[in-house]
Design a protein that fits this description.
- The chain is mainly α.
- The protein is 71% helix and 0% strand.
- It contains 9 helices and no strands.
- The two termini are 25 Å apart.
């Protein structure tokens, strides 16, 4: 089996795991977010594996006036659609390049920034370091960043203008909303993940127009 096919199979497996974890979490209470989700305090304590396991968890909480269940469905649907588009336009390995850069890079940079703020102001909110951090949204934002860049590259190469403009606009607006409408730490992670996902393809191999 070729590397691209293996990468594609792993993308499908990841998406299935995210959906399965969400179903079993609601039905049986497992996996518990407290066992799988990262927090700044846990990472500082050396529980670095949570950076990986948190990437399988959906937020599970109400947001923007929507119920937790609706948020879960929308997030999984958005992640799946973004993954399909990234694989179709950029290849299966692109999913992992963007997802890993956005999720791990965005999380670690946001945590580092939080640490710097704490050093500057010891009066900062200490509870934030113990708040559970769910990683699916960071993966999603990274994929949208990659798709935005691919749309821009397609436009530069003379691609289908309306389709690419629409994709670029939707990705950019979703990225802006996700980086401004939530708690400060979540906003920072979303924004960083989006930017890192975009940078991976702005400076490396990107969109190749189909022949």
């Amino acid at each position: 089996m070729s590397a691209s096919k293996i990468a594609g199979a792993l993308v499908a497996a990841y998406l299935l795991c995210v959906a399965a974890f969400e179903v079993t979490r609601h039905a049986f209470g497992y996996p518990s977010p407290r066992d799988f989700a990262a927090t700044p305090a846990a990472i500082l304590a050396g529980k670095v594996w949570l950076l990986v396991t948190s990437a399988f968890l959906v937020s599970g909480g109400a947001a923007l006036g929507l119920s937790g269940t609706v948020v879960d469905v929308l997030e999984i649907a958005g992640l799946t659609l973004a993954a399909v588009l990234v694989v179709k336009r950029l290849g299966a390995t692109a999913f992992w390049r963007a997802g890993i850069a956005g999720h791990l890079g965005g999380t670690l940079l946001a945590y580092a920034g939080l640490g710097l703020l704490w050093l500057v102001s010891r009066d900062a909110d200490h509870d934030v370091v113990h708040k559970l951090d769910y990683g699916v949204s960071a993966v999603w934002m990274a994929l949208l960043g990659a798709l935005m860049v691919s749309a821009w590259q397609a436009l530069q190469a003379g691609g289908m203008r309306l389709r690419e403009v629409l994709l670029l606009t939707v990705c950019a607006l979703t990225g802006i909303a996700s980086a401004t409408l939530f708690a400060p730490l979540v906003d920072a992670e979303h924004g960083l993940a989006f930017v890192l996902g975009a940078l991976v393809f702005a400076v490396g191999p990107g969109y190749v127009p189909s022949q």
